[in-house]
Write a structure and sequence with these properties.
By secondary structure, this protein is α/β, with parallel strands linked by helices. It has a single domain, classed as NAD(P)-binding Rossmann-like Domain (Rossmann fold, 3-Layer(aba) Sandwich), CATH 3.40.50.720. The chain has eight helices and seven strands. Strands 3-2-1-4-5-6-7 form a seven-stranded parallel β-sheet, with helices on both faces. The two termini are 26 Å apart.
Amino acid sequence: MARADRFVGRVGLVTGAASGLGREVAIGLAHEGSRLLLLDRDTAALSEVARHCPGAETLVADVSSAAEMERAAAALDRLGKVTLLVTAAGMLGPTTPLPEVSEAEWDRLFAVNVKGTWLALKYVVPRMEAAGGGAVVTFASGAGLAGNAVFPAYSASKGAVVLMTRSLATGHAAKGIRANAVCPGPIETPMLRESFTQAGEAAAAREDYTRQRNPMGRFGTPAEVAAAVLFLLSDEASYLNGVALPVDGGRLA
């Protein structure tokens, strides 16, 4: 059983902390003792989640902006030596075949999912090095481990996150930094509901098909994903580095 004090005295950043999986991870880290900077674009939702995270500070910012992520790093400096990073900010993007994805849609999707992850690493990893090490968990997806005909652009962006994370793991292990990616399957979140809504009249059929593809016959919960993330961040996972961990009920088995 996980201890309730695994992250006491640890300082961390969680992007995309206002809803869904980022929210669940932030609350879990805070309840286990971490002091956090919570970052999101949704001011009201960010304030709400902060009420569940004792000692947390918030910053309304766009992860795709270098200037705003640099500002986040400066805010982290005021909290102490940062040793935890979770990059949960992300978006689904268009549910259209690749040739039909517009340039603007592609650019925005990669700006958030890929550039936003890179910018967090760019500004936080050097601080981890200065602190003597730390643990990173990026949010990829099961769609980043296998092709996805329904969300091909999203799949491409999350595949990039997987290899970015693995590259970080190989390049920074000697500096005391572990980096792993969590790859959720269909999880009961607003993003999953959005994916069904985008199907229009076929929403119910898409939901049924998605559920039936899972050997466990159900969608995962945010708490199940958060448990995996907290494990990867903890000292219990001290020899796990460069892992892309599916949390999908066996969907990709």
